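pipeline/complex-builder :: batch 7 item 3
reading input block
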Amino acid sequence: MEITFRFFASLSERTGATEGKVDLPGDATVRDLWDELGSRFPTLAEIGFTPMVACDMEYADWESPLRGVREVAFLPPVSGG
Amino acid sequence: MFRLQRQPIRLDELVQAVREDGHGAVAIFLGTVRNHNIGRKVLNLEYEAYPAMAVREMERIGRLVLEQYDVDRLAMVHRIGRLEIGETSVAVVAASAHRAAAMEACRCAIDRLKETVPIWKKEIFEGGEAWIEGAGGPMRPL
Protein backbone atom coordinates (compact mmCIF):
# COMPACT_ATOMS: atom_id res chain seq x y z
CA MET A 1 0.00 0.00 0.00
CA GLU A 2 1.17 3.50 -0.71
CA ILE A 3 1.50 5.97 2.16
CA THR A 4 2.26 9.67 1.91
CA PHE A 5 4.64 10.92 4.59
CA ARG A 6 5.12 14.53 5.62
CA PHE A 7 7.91 16.25 7.53
CA PHE A 8 7.69 19.65 9.19
CA ALA A 9 10.01 22.25 10.67
CA SER A 10 13.39 20.78 11.69
CA LEU A 11 12.48 17.38 10.21
CA SER A 12 12.03 18.82 6.74
CA GLU A 13 15.12 20.96 7.16
CA ARG A 14 17.25 17.99 8.20
CA THR A 15 16.05 15.68 5.47
CA GLY A 16 15.57 18.23 2.71
CA ALA A 17 12.10 16.70 2.15
CA THR A 18 8.64 17.97 3.01
CA GLU A 19 6.70 14.97 1.72
CA GLY A 20 6.91 11.85 -0.37
CA LYS A 21 5.49 8.39 -0.89
CA VAL A 22 6.49 5.02 0.50
CA ASP A 23 5.23 1.61 -0.54
CA LEU A 24 4.71 -0.68 2.47
CA PRO A 25 3.19 -4.11 3.16
CA GLY A 26 -0.46 -4.11 4.26
CA ASP A 27 0.30 -4.92 7.89
CA ALA A 28 2.83 -2.10 8.32
CA THR A 29 2.75 0.23 11.33
CA VAL A 30 3.92 3.80 11.85
CA ARG A 31 7.19 2.40 13.20
CA ASP A 32 7.76 0.41 10.00
CA LEU A 33 7.27 3.57 7.98
CA TRP A 34 9.70 5.47 10.21
CA ASP A 35 12.30 2.68 9.83
CA GLU A 36 11.91 2.81 6.07
CA LEU A 37 12.31 6.60 6.12
CA GLY A 38 15.37 6.22 8.32
CA SER A 39 17.13 4.31 5.57
CA ARG A 40 16.01 6.82 2.96
CA PHE A 41 17.04 9.81 5.09
CA PRO A 42 20.03 8.86 7.30
CA THR A 43 19.99 12.31 8.96
CA LEU A 44 16.80 11.30 10.79
CA ALA A 45 19.02 9.39 13.20
CA GLU A 46 20.46 12.72 14.41
CA ILE A 47 17.30 14.61 15.29
CA GLY A 48 17.59 14.22 19.07
CA PHE A 49 13.87 13.91 19.82
CA THR A 50 11.05 11.46 19.22
CA PRO A 51 8.59 13.00 16.80
CA MET A 52 4.89 12.97 17.42
CA VAL A 53 2.90 11.16 14.76
CA ALA A 54 -0.39 12.03 13.07
CA CYS A 55 -2.26 9.62 10.81
CA ASP A 56 -4.65 11.49 8.54
CA MET A 57 -4.34 14.49 10.86
CA GLU A 58 -5.19 12.63 14.10
CA TYR A 59 -2.49 12.02 16.69
CA ALA A 60 -1.50 8.37 16.66
CA ASP A 61 1.18 6.22 18.25
CA TRP A 62 4.13 4.32 16.89
CA GLU A 63 2.37 0.99 16.84
CA SER A 64 -0.69 2.31 14.96
CA PRO A 65 -1.48 0.20 11.88
CA LEU A 66 -1.35 2.05 8.59
CA ARG A 67 -4.04 0.11 6.79
CA GLY A 68 -6.58 2.62 5.49
CA VAL A 69 -4.32 5.57 6.30
CA ARG A 70 -3.47 7.98 3.50
CA GLU A 71 -1.07 10.43 5.09
CA VAL A 72 1.33 10.14 8.02
CA ALA A 73 2.94 13.28 9.40
CA PHE A 74 5.99 13.28 11.66
CA LEU A 75 5.89 16.29 13.94
CA PRO A 76 8.68 17.78 16.02
CA PRO A 77 7.54 18.81 19.52
CA VAL A 78 5.23 21.73 18.78
CA SER A 79 6.13 25.32 19.69
CA GLY A 80 3.23 27.50 18.64
CA GLY A 81 2.09 30.47 20.66
CA MET B 1 -13.46 31.28 14.48
CA PHE B 2 -10.36 29.09 14.27
CA ARG B 3 -7.77 29.86 11.66
CA LEU B 4 -4.19 30.47 10.59
CA GLN B 5 -3.32 33.64 8.76
CA ARG B 6 -0.33 35.38 7.24
CA GLN B 7 -1.64 38.89 7.71
CA PRO B 8 -1.64 40.72 11.07
CA ILE B 9 -4.31 39.77 13.60
CA ARG B 10 -7.07 42.34 14.01
CA LEU B 11 -8.34 42.14 17.53
CA ASP B 12 -11.51 44.18 16.92
CA GLU B 13 -12.58 41.63 14.31
CA LEU B 14 -12.13 38.74 16.77
CA VAL B 15 -14.00 40.50 19.56
CA GLN B 16 -16.82 41.24 17.17
CA ALA B 17 -16.91 37.57 16.13
CA VAL B 18 -17.47 36.29 19.69
CA ARG B 19 -19.29 39.06 21.58
CA GLU B 20 -23.07 38.96 21.95
CA ASP B 21 -25.49 41.11 23.91
CA GLY B 22 -25.91 38.48 26.62
CA HIS B 23 -22.18 38.63 27.37
CA GLY B 24 -20.73 40.66 30.18
CA ALA B 25 -17.14 39.58 29.61
CA VAL B 26 -14.69 39.12 26.77
CA ALA B 27 -11.30 37.74 27.83
CA ILE B 28 -8.37 38.14 25.47
CA PHE B 29 -4.98 36.50 25.43
CA LEU B 30 -2.36 37.77 22.99
CA GLY B 31 0.97 36.05 22.47
CA THR B 32 3.56 38.53 21.22
CA VAL B 33 7.02 38.14 19.74
CA ARG B 34 9.59 38.71 22.47
CA ASN B 35 13.02 40.23 21.78
CA HIS B 36 14.90 37.73 23.94
CA ASN B 37 14.88 34.00 24.65
CA ILE B 38 17.18 31.81 26.77
CA GLY B 39 19.76 34.57 26.88
CA ARG B 40 19.74 35.31 23.14
CA LYS B 41 18.75 38.52 21.42
CA VAL B 42 15.88 37.54 19.12
CA LEU B 43 15.58 39.37 15.79
CA ASN B 44 12.38 37.77 14.45
CA LEU B 45 10.43 34.52 14.32
CA GLU B 46 9.32 32.35 11.43
CA TYR B 47 6.18 30.28 12.08
CA GLU B 48 5.34 27.12 10.16
CA ALA B 49 2.25 24.94 10.55
CA TYR B 50 0.69 21.73 9.34
CA PRO B 51 -2.21 23.91 8.26
CA ALA B 52 -5.19 21.58 7.94
CA MET B 53 -4.34 19.67 11.11
CA ALA B 54 -3.59 22.86 13.05
CA VAL B 55 -7.08 24.18 12.31
CA ARG B 56 -8.63 20.82 13.22
CA GLU B 57 -6.76 20.80 16.52
CA MET B 58 -7.83 24.35 17.29
CA GLU B 59 -11.43 23.39 16.56
CA ARG B 60 -11.09 20.35 18.82
CA ILE B 61 -9.72 22.52 21.64
CA GLY B 62 -12.59 24.94 21.03
CA ARG B 63 -15.20 22.19 21.45
CA LEU B 64 -13.50 20.95 24.60
CA VAL B 65 -13.27 24.40 26.16
CA LEU B 66 -16.89 25.20 25.37
CA GLU B 67 -17.92 21.96 27.07
CA GLN B 68 -15.71 22.48 30.08
CA TYR B 69 -16.35 26.17 30.85
CA ASP B 70 -19.40 28.33 30.97
CA VAL B 71 -18.44 30.25 27.84
CA ASP B 72 -20.50 30.68 24.69
CA ARG B 73 -17.98 31.66 22.07
CA LEU B 74 -14.30 31.24 21.49
CA ALA B 75 -11.95 32.41 18.75
CA MET B 76 -8.35 31.30 18.18
CA VAL B 77 -6.16 32.73 15.46
CA HIS B 78 -2.48 32.00 14.89
CA ARG B 79 -0.11 33.75 12.52
CA ILE B 80 2.23 31.89 10.19
CA GLY B 81 5.21 33.25 8.27
CA ARG B 82 7.73 35.81 9.44
CA LEU B 83 6.89 37.96 12.46
CA GLU B 84 8.78 40.91 13.85
CA ILE B 85 9.38 41.76 17.52
CA GLY B 86 6.21 42.98 19.19
CA GLU B 87 3.80 41.50 16.68
CA THR B 88 0.91 39.33 17.87
CA SER B 89 1.54 35.69 16.97
CA VAL B 90 -1.60 34.25 18.52
CA ALA B 91 -4.90 35.54 19.86
CA VAL B 92 -7.45 33.70 21.97
CA VAL B 93 -10.74 35.44 22.69
CA ALA B 94 -13.48 34.00 24.90
CA ALA B 95 -16.87 35.51 25.65
CA SER B 96 -19.27 34.69 28.46
CA ALA B 97 -21.92 36.17 30.70
CA HIS B 98 -19.43 36.61 33.58
CA ARG B 99 -15.70 37.16 33.70
CA ALA B 100 -14.39 34.09 35.54
CA ALA B 101 -15.45 31.59 32.89
CA ALA B 102 -14.10 33.71 30.04
CA MET B 103 -10.72 34.14 31.73
CA GLU B 104 -10.37 30.47 32.65
CA ALA B 105 -11.43 29.34 29.17
CA CYS B 106 -8.90 31.67 27.59
CA ARG B 107 -6.12 30.27 29.77
CA CYS B 108 -7.09 26.68 29.08
CA ALA B 109 -7.30 27.24 25.32
CA ILE B 110 -3.86 28.83 24.97
CA ASP B 111 -2.26 26.19 27.21
CA ARG B 112 -3.70 23.43 25.06
CA LEU B 113 -2.78 25.17 21.84
CA LYS B 114 0.84 25.24 22.96
CA GLU B 115 0.73 21.52 23.73
CA THR B 116 -0.99 20.01 20.73
CA VAL B 117 -1.51 22.34 17.77
CA PRO B 118 1.07 21.51 15.07
CA ILE B 119 2.76 24.88 14.72
CA TRP B 120 6.49 25.53 15.09
CA LYS B 121 8.58 28.63 15.45
CA LYS B 122 12.06 29.18 14.16
CA GLU B 123 13.97 31.76 16.10
CA ILE B 124 16.29 34.05 14.20
CA PHE B 125 18.63 35.49 16.79
CA GLU B 126 21.86 37.44 16.84
CA GLY B 127 24.44 34.96 15.63
CA GLY B 128 22.22 32.20 14.30
CA GLU B 129 18.84 30.57 13.97
CA ALA B 130 17.17 27.55 15.56
CA TRP B 131 13.86 25.70 15.49
CA ILE B 132 12.20 25.83 18.87
CA GLU B 133 10.96 22.35 19.71
CA GLY B 134 8.58 21.95 22.60
CA ALA B 135 6.92 24.77 24.52
CA GLY B 136 9.72 24.85 27.09
CA GLY B 137 12.30 26.39 24.78
CA PRO B 138 15.24 24.44 23.38
CA MET B 139 15.02 20.83 22.19
CA ARG B 140 13.82 18.17 24.58
CA PRO B 141 16.25 15.30 24.94
CA LEU B 142 15.14 11.84 23.80
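note: The radius of gyration of chain A is 12 Å.
queue -> next item
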